[in-house]
Amino acid sequence: MLTHTEALHAVLSAAIPGPVETRSMDLAAGAVLREDLLADRDQPPFDRATMDGIAFSRTAWEAGVRRLTIEGIQPAGAPALRLSEPAAGCFRIMTGAVLPAGCDGVLESEQVLFEETVAQIADTAVWQPHRNVHGQGSDKKAGHVLLAGGCVLTPQRLAIAISAGAASVCVSQPLRAMVVSTGNELVDLGEALAPYQIRPSNAYGLVAALRDYGCRAARKHVPDDLEAMRELFSASVTEVDLILVSGGVSKGLYDFVPRALEEAGVEKIFHRVAQKPGKPLWFGQHPQGATVFGLPGNPVSTLIGFREYVVPWLRRSLGLPDALTEWVTLNDLPASVAPLTGYFPVRKAPDMNHPCAVDLVAYQGSGHLAALAESDGYVVIDPEVVPNLTTAIPVPFRGWGAI
Amino acid sequence: MLTHTEALHAVLSAAIPGPVETRSMDLAAGAVLREDLLADRDQPPFDRATMDGIAFSRTAWEAGVRRLTIEGIQPAGAPALRLSEPAAGCFRIMTGAVLPAGCDGVLESEQVLFEETVAQIADTAVWQPHRNVHGQGSDKKAGHVLLAGGCVLTPQRLAIAISAGAASVCVSQPLRAMVVSTGNELVDLGEALAPYQIRPSNAYGLVAALRDYGCRAARKHVPDDLEAMRELFSASVTEVDLILVSGGVSKGLYDFVPRALEEAGVEKIFHRVAQKPGKPLWFGQHPQGATVFGLPGNPVSTLIGFREYVVPWLRRSLGLPDALTEWVTLNDLPASVAPLTGYFPVRKAPDMNHPCAVDLVAYQGSGHLAALAESDGYVVIDPEVVPNLTTAIPVPFRGWGAI
Fold it and tell me: How far is B222 from chain A (nearest CA, A)?
């Protein structure tokens, strides 16, 4: 049986960045950028005033001239004017405007008394060339990388792409996914329920989680029937990039999923991981088709299996770097820890003195879905750390939710 | 001039939870739940087997019987069978199945040798009543709150709602928002650009950020013209819930936004905050209409103003609790800090020994949009903390991105 680390390594080795597509900027938010975006011009593209005030020449300043004739106004969005009297003149200038030709810097309005046609500089004013000027190309030179490929186009990165004039960008294509719930005990929403039946909560949760990663995800259900499973898997394994199966992967008499997948041509990479919950995890790949995760059906096992193995696979497949490990400290320790990698749902409880503290949420095991309502994620506790585990020792944390 | 704390308080005081709507579960992912969801039945709804194995009676176990006649199979999704010979019989049982009538617990298959019609229990087997049984109602009793209103329906919370059979839920209505860029220097994507002109990156970024909060956001542009601004604001202020204006809020000759908003009936609540960047922030509300943020136009000021003031307003308006403050430690300190609340872009740099460490990113001021490409958010440094600021002292962190 693989350790959690070996299993994760096997999953990542099976992931390669998927295909790309060109998307217009109006539809690019949240997508994964797959090309380096270069600055189309210097940023800023001109010597830019960073304050409202007056622009003038060092000639006047160094000659001690403090009463300057206002030759005109330099607003933002207008071509650069040219100072005709460097020794005696100035322009009123607005934030964002081009520094006029013949001017060396800007003095902020707070230091200037404006008369009809004259700007009187305060005796106390301090100034030097380039003051209040955001120099052309000082942020980024034309042709240099503004945004490196392999990042999510969050709002601020989208703004950066827009600043370079990109009307469309190369991004990862949405992955095609199928979520399959198994189990005769499942009855969909809206249908009447017998006391021994339950709702397909895993499938709905997985579809929502996949959509957070931009996947096109369909939801299917099959009963505990080898024939029906083989048919569904055979029909879809070459139509989608990813199949997530919930349930039917353990050793019960009706756990047909591994056999049905293999009969549909999916090659097993591993089955079972030394972890709790989620030990029966099955992972495989079709030579010309989908990557398949057989997630244990207990609801907490399903969601942790998704976050722990499917998310890293998704990041690689979307062309994102692996996520940094987030570390937290436990305010309280688990009562009992099996000699397996253990996952424990937690709620963030930060304060200034314990900036990365979390509380364990009351949790009765992998069937206890309701325990996750107030959780922000879970911690990972490997058997090696258990002997020395204290509330002072940081442990890895995985948050629920998107990229 | 208000402090950052006073300004935030004024913004929050102006926010009230907005209207709700009923949405089917297929469309509810990511929405804000606005009702308490109760358990429709006990969870689990029956005494549920947590392992594959055999179910039998304490009578047989306590009498020392270790060879039991298999009376049948109890699969998941089938009605409970009844044990006819409590002293000598058992059922094979599958994970997720109902505990059959007359049985007190389950012994896992690993402890059982299965013959044709007999289950031989290992001499070393340990068992007691309720073993491997997830008791009816032990997670949640029928009628108790499963999911409290005022939370985002993340995938795991969606799964919890599904488990209670909710076919539709009461969620926050999408807020109607308008993003207005101002400035004669702005030229939209696809149009030719003069050297003194730039792209409307703020407006695109703000629209994307608002959509992360489920808002319906339209994008408009007005030139630096009082009349045009007054017209646009008057026409839309009663049509939307939120207006974000970028630029035109400072003291320049062409900064008409505050005047145009007030002439359109928007009552000013405050203008200017003792912070850097983003000092010229304007905030107001129309008595029968929109809440309006006038965000300074320097791109870093715009995005920080959004994250610092608009996001808390959005959370209140969507019916979410205020976010917990996240704390981080700085690996390096800012070179200079003005006597104002300072915001500095940072990149997360956690490791096991510095679990909440961040690095400052190279940053030249509020015009330096490109600096945000590699940032995960920014830290907040209030003037009071500056004298004692060290790399050991946690400071507040705000991440970019969604709820």
Answer: 13
The answer to whether residues B183 and B286 belong to one domain is yes
CA-to-CA dists, residue B283 to B254, B267, B300, B340, B403, angstroms: 19, 9, 18, 19, 22
User: Among the three residues A156, A172, A188, which one is the final residue of a domain in this structure?
Assistant: A172
Is B268 found in the same domain as B190?
A: yes
CATH code of residue A250? 3.40.980.10
Last residue of a domain, one of B134, B158, B192: B134
**Together in a domain, A181 and A289:** yes
Task: Supply the CATH number for residue B96's domain.
Answer: 2.170.190.11
What span, in angstroms and rounded, lies between the C-alpha atoms of B204 and B207? 5
Closest-CA residue of chain A to B140: A370
* Contacts of residue A188, Cβ cutoff 8 Å, sequence gap at least 6: A199, A200, A221
Give the contacts of B384 (CB within 8 A, at least 6 positions apart).
none
Q: Are residues B211 and B255 in the same domain?
A: yes
Q: Which two tokens stand for residue B373?
A: 């490409």
Residue A69 and residue A122 in one domain: yes
Distance of CA A338 to the CA centre of its chain: 33
ipTM confidence score: 0.96
- With beta carbons less than 8 A apart as the criterion, state whether B276 and B338 touch: yes
- Of A94, A154, A365, which has the smallest distance from its Cβ to B252's Cβ? A94
Assess contact for B346 and B361: CB atoms under 8 A.
yes
Domain assignment present for B155? yes
Output the tens digit of pLDDT for each of chain B's 403 residues. 999 999 999 999 999 999 999 999 999 999 999 999 999 999 999 999 999 999 999 999 999 999 999 999 999 999 999 999 999 999 999 999 999 999 999 999 999 999 999 999 999 999 999 999 999 999 999 999 999 999 999 999 999 999 999 999 999 999 999 999 999 999 999 999 999 999 999 999 999 999 999 999 999 999 999 999 999 999 999 999 999 999 999 999 999 999 999 999 999 999 999 999 999 999 999 999 999 999 999 999 999 999 999 999 999 999 999 999 999 999 999 988 789 999 999 999 999 999 999 999 999 999 999 999 999 999 999 999 998 899 999 999 999 965 3
Based on its alpha-carbon atoms, the radius of gyration of chain B, rounded to whole angstroms, reads: 31
Among B229, B230, B280, B317, smallest CA distance to B19 is for B317
Looking at the complex, does the CB of residue A77 fall below 8 Å from at least one CB of chain B?
yes
* In a shared domain, residues A125 and A264: no
Q: Tell me, what CATH number does A38's domain have?
A: 3.90.105.10
Is the residue at A117 inside a domain? yes
Go through A218-253 and write b for each residue having 16 or more CB atoms within 10 A of its CB, e for each that does not: ebebbbbeeeebbebbbebbeebbbbbbbbbbbebe
Q: Chain A: nearest CA to B316, how far in angstroms?
A: 19
Residue B338's domain spans which residues?
Answer: 326-399
Work out whether the CA dihedral A96, A99, A100, A104 comes out positive or negative.
positive
User: Are residues B246 and B343 located together in one domain of the fold?
Assistant: no
Phi/psi for A376 (5° steps) reads: -100, -10
Same domain membership, residue B308 and residue B238? yes
Q: Residue B41, CB half-sphere, CA atoms under 13 Å: how many? A: 18
* Closest to A170 (Cα-Cα) out of A318, A320, A20, A25: A20
Q: Which residues of B touch A400 (CB under 8 A)?
A: 154-156
pTM of the complete model: 0.97
DSSP string, B329-346: EESS--S---SSEEEEEE
As for how many domains chain A has, the answer is 4
Mutate to test the interface with A, among B154, B304, B328 (most CBs of A within 10 A): B154
Residue B141 lies in a domain: no
A203's enclosing H/E stretch is helix A201-211
Flag whether A288 is in a domain.
yes
Residues B49, B107: Cα–Cα separation, whole Å: 10
